[in-house]
Write a structure and sequence with these properties.
By secondary structure, the chain is of the alpha/beta class. The protein has three domains: 254 residues, Rossmann fold, CATH 3.40.50.620; 123 residues, Isoleucyl-tRNA Synthetase, Domain 1 (Orthogonal Bundle), CATH 1.10.730; 47 residues. 43% of the residues lie in helices and 17% in strands. The protein contains 15 helices and 16 strands. The strands form five sheets. The protein has a five-stranded parallel sheet, with helices on both faces. A four-stranded antiparallel sheet has the order 6-7-8-9. Zinc ion (ZN) binds next to loops.
């Protein structure tokens, strides 16, 4: 079954036609390791993991490269401001290298907890400085660069199709310098740094010699250099969050295609934002939620993974604790059903549900539709063994630990739901209803303990 994906470059859904099937060369922009990643970042990584697992289910052989940005990502998208790594080092009283190592490890631990498959190649920007310098040399040899007092810049006016990843009006807006241009030496508002000179007055920890002077690479250079090193000058799919369309990915395309004269990634996929209080969840916004914050409130990282699947990756998703609670209950129900089915002898997989599940995912990774098929299968009169076989297939993509043994103190979904309804009754001061629900919970073998975060159930 071919996989149809929405390609941001052509702004249409297309059948995936890899260059060397079944292999699919895939590049996904990774974390900037100056702080913890927030659950918004992880929404993008979960969508990319869904892509990798769907490719495998449909018979492709994904080969994925992910970078770790440990230099050059400045606090402003316009190549101004401080390097985020140096900001992190000053904040924590550590070296930039120590900060990078610490948050890379934190990212890898979180990724494991979310059942994200590790990429085939995980590459650090600081391990690929010569490759980035070589890219800038190629661009310079083609006359696509110019120097200013603070760096070497890409001249975007020299590339006729510059900005093709975004709608024309958006590009016009950037060109007309809708943003106040902080660097008067830049020829055009859209020009971007390929190499920045080490500022004489500020002591940077991360800098290298280059043909243009001591300094560090521009942020976009790393992804072009490493994608082409590990996947070739033209490859199949490139992913990231929608915030990367106008600057980071647009500039990756410009410098890669400028250097090689060949198409860079053939398909571009972009995941929409996780919102908090109606705005993009962002580290700069202060109140961001880390994966460890979920555990502190009694959620498994996989409850959040389930939550990500409740919206299509191209739709915005709101983060609220209430909606996460619903996802937690839903996942708990699925796990209970899977464990019950696993007790049955296996039967052949049910072709109808399996086909519907694959069709949902093959249609631009429609996770909510795929989840609906799973619920339909559970509600159906399929024998337990056939449900088991289907759920095993679904688990290979959903990766929600459906078959993991229940922890001894796991509260069944039925009890959790009664508690939620009872909490609502208490809020409405309906104490008769609240007492009735307490009794219903006790009849199921649990005791209700009221606390300031609501009621909890403890096994009798
Ligand atoms: P960063 O560490 O800032 O480079 O971001 C890592 C990835 O997370 C990128 O692909 C971003 O596009 C993505 N991202 C950042 N904020 C959000 C958000 N609120 N929702 C979804 N993805 C995001
Ligand atoms: Zn990137």
């Amino acid at each position: 079954m071919p996989l149809r994906l929405y390609n941001s470059l052509t702004r249409s859904k297309e059948d995936l036609g890899p260059l060397a099937p079944p292999r699919v060369g895939l590049y996904t922009c990774g974390p900037t390791v100056y702080n913890y990643q927030h659950v918004g970042n992880y929404r993008t990584y979960v969508f990319e993991d869904l892509l990798v697992r769907t490719l495998k289910l449909l018979g492709y052989a994904p080969y994925r490269v992910m970078n770790v940005t440990d230099v050059g990502h400045l606090t402003s998208q316009g190549d101004e401001g401080e390097d985020k790594m140096e900001v992190g080092a000053a904040r924590e009283g550590k070296t930039a290298w120590e900060v990078a190592a610490f948050y890379t490890d934190a990212f890898l631990a979180d990724s494991k907890a979310l059942n994200l498959l590790p990429p085939e190649v995980l590459c650090r920007a600081t391990d690929h400085i010569p490759e980035q310098i070589e890219l800038v040399r190629r661009l310079e040899a083609k006359g696509l660069t110019y120097r200013t007092s603070d760096g070497v810049y890409f001249d975007t006016a020299k590339l006729p199709d510059y900005g093709k990843l975004m709608p024309r009006e958006h590009l016009e807006g950037l060109r007309s310098g809708a943003r106040v241009e902080a660097n008067p030496e830049k020829k055009h508002a859209t020009d971007f740094a390929l190499w920045k000179f080490a500022p004489p007055d500020a002591k940077r920890q991360m800098e290298w010699d280059s043909p243009w002077g001591r300094g560090f690479p521009g942020w976009h250079a790393e992804c072009s250099a490493m994608a082409m090193k590990f996947l070739g000058e033209t490859f199949d799919v490139h992913c990231g969050g929608v915030d990367h369309i106008p600057v980071h990915h647009t500039n990756e395309i410009a410098q890669s295609e400028g250097a090689t004269g060949k198409p860079f990634a053939r398909v571009w996929l972009h995941g929409e934002f996780l919102l908090m209080n109606s705005a993009k969840m962002a580290k700069s916004a202060g109140g961001f939620v880390k994966l460890s914050d979920l555990a502190d409130k009694g959620f498994s990282p996989l409850d959040y993974r389930y939550h990500c699947f409740t919206a299509h990756y191209r739709k915005q998703l709101d983060f609220t604790w209430e909606s996460l609670e619903s996802s937690k209950t839903a996942r708990r129900r699925l796990c209970e059903a899977a464990r019950a089915a696993a007790a049955e002898p296996p039967k052949p997989n049910c072709a109808e549900f399996s086909a519907r599940f694959r069709e949902a995912l093959a249609d631009d990774l429609n996770a909510p539709a795929a989840l609906a098929v799973v619920w339909d299968a559970l509600k159906s009169d399929l024998p337990g063994g056939a449900k088991r076989a289907f759920l095993e297939e679904a688990e290979s993509v959903l990766a929600l630990d459906l078959f993991a043994p229940a922890p001894d103190d796991a509260v069944p979904a039925e009890v959790a739901e009664l508690l939620a309804v009872r909490d609502a009754a208490r809020k409405n001061k309906d104490f008769a209803e609240s007492d009735r629900l307490r009794k219903a919970v006790e009849d199921l073998g649990w005791t209700v303990k009221d606390g300031k975060d609501g009621a909890k159930a403890v096994k009798k």
